[in-house]
Structure formats: C-alpha cells, structure tokens
Amino acid sequence: MTLEVILAPLMGGGLIGLAATLLLLTHGRIAGISGICGGVLGDRTADSSWKVAFLVGLVVAGLIAFTQQPEAFEYGEDRSLAAVAVAGLLVGVGTSVGSGCTSGHGVCGISRMSMRSIVATCTFMVAGALAVFVINHLLGGAL
Amino acid sequence: MSRLLAALLIGAIFGAGLVISGMTLPSKVIGFLDFAGDWDPALMFVMVGAIGVHMGTRWLVLRRDQPLFDEGFVSGLATHIDGRLIGGAVLFGLGWGLAGYCPGPAIVSVGVGGATAWTFVGTMLLGMLVARRL
User: Fold this and answer.
1) Contacts with A26 (C-beta within 8 Å, 6 or more apart), sequence order
2) Which of A18, A66, B52, B109 has its CA 20 to 30 A from that of A112?
3) Any domain includes A92
4) For A75-86, what is each residue's pLDDT tens digit?
5) Which residue of A has its CA nearest to B7?
6) What is the pTM of this model?
7) Interchain proximity B17–A102, CB inside 8 Å
8) What is the ipTM of this complex?
9) Residue B36 belongs to what domain range?
10) Domain coverage including residue A103
11) Is B9 on the interface with A (CB under 8 A)?
12) A104 domain residue, yes or no
C-alpha cells in the first residue's frame, strides 16, 4: 500500500470534514447530503434556497473536477442501468426512512458520537457488503 | 446573499473532497464493500479523514452563541434507535452496494457521469418523494 493510496482518501476526507464544520459555522446545520437533497423536494421553506445553493456547489465541483481529472469519474460499466435505477430507488427510500446517509450518519453523526448514527452506519455498511457479496461472488459480478 | 454564496462554496468544497478521495468512482466504493474479494481500504481512510477533521473542529464552532447566518445551531437531533432507522439503513446499504453510489458522489457526478449518474439521481429523488408517504 503506497502513501499516495492512503493520502488522497485522507485529504479528500479531510475536506469533507472541513466542509461539514463550515456548514455548521455558517448555517448551523448538519451536512447530510440526503437530508439536504430531500429538503428541496417538498414545500419551499426558509432553508430551501441555501440547500439548492449547496447542491449546485456539489454539481459545479464535479464539472470543474472533470475538466482537470476526467478519470475521477466512471460511467458504471459494471452495472446495468436497470440495476442502477433500482439502486437509486433503494437509496432514496432508505435514506429518507433511515434519516441519513454516509455523510449525515457516517461523518457528522459519528463525529458527535451519536449512538443512533453509529448503529445506522454499521447497518448500511453490512447491508452494502452483503449486496456486493451476493452480486460479485454469487452472481458472477454482473447485474 | 452571502448565506447562499457560503452554501454554494461549502457544497463545492464537499464535492472536491469526494472527487479527491476517489468516492466518485463506484468501483472504489464497491471495492471497499467487497470484503471477500480484492478489498480496497480507500473509503475507510476517507471516513478517518472526514471524522478526524470534523470531530476536531466542530467543538470550536459550537463555542459560539450562534452560527454566522442563522439564529441558532440545529438542535433536538433524534437519538432513538428503532425499526425505521434500521430498515432505512438496510435499504440504503443494499442500494449503495448495488450501484456503488451514495447520494453525495452521485450528485457530484450528475453533470459528467453520464446516464448512470442521471438514472441513479433520478430514481433516488423519486424514492425520496415516495418515502414521504410511508
């Protein structure tokens, strides 16, 4: 395992943690992407506009990054579009019912030592590993 | 205006972090979840970096009386562990392992990731709308 393999994820992760702290500093809110995303779907509230701005920031970061480093993105050769569509639906329903995803429960929740978020994070990691085990090792990797 | 600009900039920093850490590559996420295969530890280091920085700095922010652009810090966050939390996390995890995308990286990829990212984000939004009725 080279240093670069560890350093890039650590630094990228550090930026994610910094962004979460900055959102707390400016808006006083938890940087949970599924919550922010779901928050713009319903009726307009006082928070709708900054949530949209945050999501636009995510997309803009992707566009800028793509011009510098197109190999940082993938087009999902491993999974069929039908499988991806089902996955999106599961993630949308699951993060709404379970009140969070990798950022809200995983990063922010664990950072404040919330037992609820630790339980959620362990649960979705195990479920994710189970899905990958079934697909990659029982179904031969393609779906 | 500065409230929106700050949110835009913070979203961009968050997105840059996801790209730099390799999380916009579904194959890396699937590689992390593939404990029986050629395991890729990258996501573990992402979590260590993110939690390390956030845990190490959030307390400084919380010493303030209020955030810069709002009346107060979010409070009354749920603490209960129930069937909805577990069931939701199971569904999310299954979808995460199936596509290799979670909400953040998928949204970051929506402008450049092609049909995969559009499809994922489209059905994810649909799922969020459906879940409101559950």
Assistant:
1) B3, B6, B7, B10, B67, B68, B69, B70
2) B109
3) yes
4) 766 789 999 999
5) A54
6) 0.96
7) no
8) 0.96
9) 2-131
10) 77-143
11) yes
12) yes
